[in-house]
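Batch job 17 of 40 flagged for manual review because the log was empty.
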Amino acid sequence: MILLFLLIYFIIILVVIEIFVILFQMTGLKVKVSRFQVISMMTGTGYTTGESELILGHPIRRKLAAFLISFGAFSLAVIISSVSQFLSNGLRTTEILIGAAVVIIIYCILKIEGIQLVLSKLFNQELKHKVGLADLPIRDIFLKNKKDILIHLPLYKESELADSSLIQLITNHNSLDFAILFIERGDVIIRKNIYETTLQEGDQLLLFGRKTVIHETFSHDLQIMEEKQKQQSDEI
């Protein structure tokens, strides 16, 4: 009876996993990434530290993750209790021998050269389907070098860049070790002729490059940003 209960409960767990895989997929996460993350959260393992940022950075995914973690902890308690009760009833020698035989048979099958070749081809084929860049944290894409930085720089009315173009103020930008990925102006993203575009108060620049170069080139605006953020935190 206990074994039947465990079997049914494992089926429930598998169904819950697939339900949350669908839910995470609906938030824009790929199926393979979703399934691995769901299993990781439910079992409380820590194998997905990098990809976990995909969950933490999304409000809906965080709520789903909170339920999964709670459900996983509850399920673990149920399984341990059931297994303990099952073991307390005592195992017969026949059951132990059957379990040992199954493990030995699986081991012997995996030692067959033909089976190993088939599995190797299957695993290598799966490796070709890598996770896309859209599914990786920004840190893993851009910040592979500790000397680099990716920063969102807002322009305030005190900014030296306001009402000017970057090419007017940074004449040697081609020789500097940084790039401006885009200018965000309200709902508009400007990607063309960035250095010739006249900047306005409220614009936000996405900068990527060597940390020291960016801090030196945009020192005035970075200082203004820090002061504004400090004022906001003091008001709160």
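Reviewer: the log was empty due to a logging misconfiguration, but the result itself is present. DSSP finds ten helices and four strands in the chain. Unflagging and moving on to job 18.
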